[in-house]
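Hello,

Our lab assistant flagged a job as stuck in the queue for most of the afternoon. It eventually completed. Since we weren't sure the result was trustworthy after the delay, we are filing this so someone can double-check. Below is the sequence as submitted and the structure that was eventually returned. Let us know if re-running is recommended.
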Amino acid sequence: MSETVEIRRATVADVDALVPLYRAAYRTTADLGYPTGMTDVEREYVRSWFADDEPSAEFVAERDDAVVGAVRVLETEEYPFAERLAVAPDEQGAGIGAALFERAEAYARNQGYDQLQLGTYSGHPFLIDFYESRGYEQYTVWENDDADHDYVGYQKQL
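-- returned structure --
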């Protein structure tokens, strides 16, 4: 296996690789008891992210011609919102998530934003530490009456 991971802008041609990536990566989230529909994500839903009217940018991490990670940046609010971070289970801990976030942050800066936001569930055993280690700070909590965990908003000045 190559050590080199390339981060690039995703295209609609990546949809068939993104679906199994998201299903596998979000299995951990589901197994920890956090609600997610990504374990059953459908091709049509991922395909919709590439619609011409969708204000977003998707990035993938690729190693040896295989998509091993992804992140999405939505541009629908005052500040862009990073979501759908996914790293293949056998690639976790190799710095792929950090590389994807570096690319997402660079994209936001290049688009003229001075801040990037994201969200995760309260009490998440590794994502909160990951985001905080990258300089993200909590700015809000969205209470979730339908689940055991609230959704916590984080932001970082770029």
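-- support follow-up --
The delay was a queue issue, not a problem with the job. The result is valid. The chain is about 30% helix and 30% strand. The domain at 6-157 is CATH 3.40.630.30 (Aminopeptidase).
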